[in-house]
Amino acid sequence: MATTTPDLSTLTSSAQIFSGAHTLPQIRSIHKALHVAVEDKAARLRTQVGSSYRELLGTADAIVRMRAEMDIVQGTLGRMGGRCGRAVVGGKVAGLGKFVKEREDVPDVGAGDGSGLGLVARAKLLEACVLAVARMLKSSGSAKNKIQEDTGPDTPSRGDRLVIAAKVLVLSRLLVKSLGDDVTNVQINAAVEASKKSLGNLKRRLLRGIEIVLKQAEEQADREAVLKALCAYSLTDNSGARDVVRHFLRVRGEAMALAFEIEEHERERSTKDVVKSLGLYTRTLLDVQALVPNKLKEALMGLKKDRLLVDPSLKELEGLRLDIYERWCGDDIQYFKPYIRHDDLDGKQAKEMLMRWATGGGEVLLQGLERTLEKVVDFKAIVEMRTDVLQLWIRDGGKAKGFDPSTMLEKFRTTINAHVVEVLDTKVNKLRLVASEVSATLDAWKEGITDQHLSLWDEDALDIDLSGGANQFTQDVISRLYGRNQAVSKAVNSYRSWYRVIDDVGQIVEQLRRQRWDNDVDEIEDEEVIEQRQQELSREDPQKLHDHLNKSLEKAFQDLDSQFTKLWDAHKDRPDNGHIAMYLVRILRDIRAKLPKLKVVESFGMALVPPLQDKVAQTVIISPMDEFVTSALARKSVIGRSLWEGEPELPTSPSPGVFRFLRDLTIAMGDAGTDLWSPVAVTTMKQHLTKQLSEAWLEALAAHLAKPKSAEPSEEANGHEDAEGNNEPNGKAVSDVTEAERKDLLIQWLYDISLLRCCFSPPAGSSRDEIKGLEEVVYEKTGLDSGPARQRLIKSSQDYWKKTNLLFGLLI
Predict the structure, then answer these.
(1) Angle CA(607)–CA(608)–CA(613) in degrees, nearest 5?
(2) Which pLDDT value is given to residue 728?
(3) What are the domain boundaries of the chain?
């Protein structure tokens, strides 16, 4: 059963709500209804208060506004009261009376002569003309770099302002002439003289403003502004069509030459200067053909169509107030029309003038291009200039009628290509700086300092700063590994810098081959013209440049090879020639690692490398060979004889002297630099070793066999030997060697020679094997009877070498 909510207006207290007449659901309903009523009343109150507040604010604003308006009204009334004072009204009455009197004194107001109001009016008009011209030139010069300013539709353009300023200047000249020099009033005379001086300055400013407009040749340049500037010049200088065109060509020519006139302390010439001058050149050709003779003729005729004082542009100038001053001017001013020769130039004469200017302007342009190129040595910048200049000429050069664009294009190509070849020769010839660096290093060579080789395992390598990443550490490791000390790095870095430049040149030449030289902006050219131009600019020019580059590189590397050979010949007899050979080998190796891709230069340095490697090998083996000969070959007894095995007993390991010799040789090779030991260098060193080992061993063998088999040494002799520090075991003298010991020593030598043969054996196909001959000689002296014994000894030495050869890695 639905619960009905009692009427809240009948409830006046809480006792009525909680009486027994209402159930619990009804009480809940009453509670909810009370909350809803309270919220509704609160909302209405808020709305009423907000509306009242807004009305109060509006009233306050109205009061403030009314007070400001009252202040304005009171100020206006105060000024009006001040103007209505007795003194002010009296002054106006006196002035009116004077004006009427002066008017009565002048018999003919329109005549403009006499010293009355006409003279004053013309003087005032002259002052107004000066101010109007100055204002026009100021607004015209506020944006020098703009031809058409962003102004409204009713605002005159810059060209219009120049024409108006020229017309006002013409009116000023007429006023000055009408006033003459017989002005008696001192104040009027002073004002006229001041105006004359100002007019001279204004005329120069006007001419400069006209030249600024005529010198503009940007893409957004308005040709109509140029036409109006020419009209302004005609009015200012009273020149006819011929003189106007001559002035225009002269200004454009000066602008072209000025584009290349850069002071020493200013910026250097750049591509922008050439493009600007070329733009002036092409724009002039197009402007003259578009304006002369028809448009210029019509524009000049329009200047003298109406009387000057009825010109609408002058009447609209508020500063002149021609509606007041016009009637005070004489007939020579009121009926004046500008007299300008508009018919003194026909199409044929204009063409002749333009052709003469184009010839001279082309020479100026080419000379400026040459002067600009003289300062540009960056190959990429030259190519960019070539692209900009040729593209601009291809786009605009063909638009001019009566001119063959290919003629000028060929001159541009010749000039630019000549400079490119010159710069290319200069850059390629800088390869000689590598030889100069090497020569300077050899002249200042200090043994132990210049040839100091940094080991890969030096402790100072741990002090490398790694804050900038691993790049520096990697470069240092590579430099140490390849023996690039400071002396080598200077020469190598010099070559790499040169190579980067030449490599960039090669890449730029390839870019030239991919360039397209179409001109489809305004019109579609014939395919034959496009193909011919493409053939010349993208095929012939890059190919000539590529061929010249290859010839220059060939000659440069031949000269460098010859210089290196002369340097080696000059220093090969020095005591430290071995370290010099190492230095040159490293430089040649790094240069040959980055040779240009030319077959002609692939043999660079190959004739010099063998003698250098030969000298390096001779230098490295000196110390190990001396130590081996003085210690190992001088020993007359076998160490480790008790370790021999088999029947007959044969050695199973080399003598300590041979092992030490191989170790010393490996250490000497490592100290010289592991980067030096190419397979050819190792083979060269082995050839020297086998030769010297054979000679030294044969001498030792002869000396050993020449000793008596037995002798009775005296005590004095034994004492002498001991005093000399003989290293024989048990203090045994050389003469005390028995036959058995002699035989054992020869067998040990045979084993050592067999082991060294495994190490120093010549490459397959070699006809010379000196160590094999030594082995045969020693074998004959050992007295070994059986072939199997020798084979066992050779097999044992080969097995030993297989086990230990990695200890002598550089010799493998």
Answers:
(1) 120
(2) 44
(3) 8-82, 106-357, 366-458+467-592, 616-711+734-811
